[in-house]
Amino acid sequence: QAPDNFPPLRKEAAVRVLRGRMKGIQGHCNSCYMDAALFSLFSCTSVLDSMLFKPFPLCDRNVQSILRDEIVNPLRKTGFVRARSVMHLREQLTEKGPCSSFTNAEKDPEEFLNLIMHQILGIEPLLKLQSGGQEQECYCYQIFMDKQEDLVVPDVQQLVEHSFLSSRLKLVEIPSCFIIQMPRFGKEYKMFSKIIPSLELDITDLLLDSPRECCLCGDVATLECS
Predict the structure, then answer these.
(1) Is the pLDDT reported for residue 36 higher than 90?
(2) Taking the model in full, what pTM does it have?
(3) Which terminus, N or C, of the chain has the lesser number of Cβ atoms within 10 Å?
(4) In this predicted model, what pLDDT tens digit does every residue of 133-160 receive, in sequence order?
(5) What percent of the chain has pLDDT over 90?
(6) Residue 201: C-alpha distances to residues 49, 62, 92, 165, 168 (Å)
(7) Which domains occur in the chain, in start order?
(8) Cβ neighbours around 120 below 10 Å, total
(9) CA-to-CA distance for 208 and 210, rounded, in angstroms?
(10) What range(s) does the Peptidase C19 ubiquitin carboxyl-terminal hydrolase domain occupy (predicted)?
(11) Could you give the CA distance from residue 26 to residue 80 in angstroms, rounded to a whole number?
């Protein structure tokens, strides 16, 4: 355990602490979905550190302390989290959640995020989306799209835009945190062999009622063609 609080790793420190053998979160018993999600959410960013400290109305302080002291702080301090610490969290999720298989079965990352953010910590939804005039709130966005022959090795920007367009979705407001789950189809088939991370994401075209430039005259656009 690392009871002292450590900031997220940045630049040279991230490379020094996280690169090499025995680094990252140790996998065990189908934990890969949770390991990858926790690493992405906390290793190099503080945008969700409220999950570690803030006393939300429904917050389970025991789960919060396990997440903070046994997983996030050791990851930021030494670059390594042992499987036993993640199993401790999984046992708590099994005990407090509606599903009894969090300790042994592979889950969808969205199921894990919904459980820990909504039911256990009581965090407000991070995203507001609109489709067909109906608004919906969620904690992360999973990319759904048909196979695109022209996208051989896409980047995240392309995938998000294609997915929003095909699903006729818009962001109601700029999200404080935009968690995106890449397209995947189990162990046998992957839609893309590789996806290039976009270090910045331009959401201008994804925002509802956002002023945008006409591609022909340069004035403020009044119509949008898909």
Answers:
(1) yes
(2) 0.86
(3) C
(4) 899 999 999 998 887 778 889 999 999 9
(5) 64
(6) 21, 35, 34, 16, 19
(7) 11-120 (3.90.70.10), 127-221 (no CATH)
(8) 22
(9) 6
(10) 24-203
(11) 7
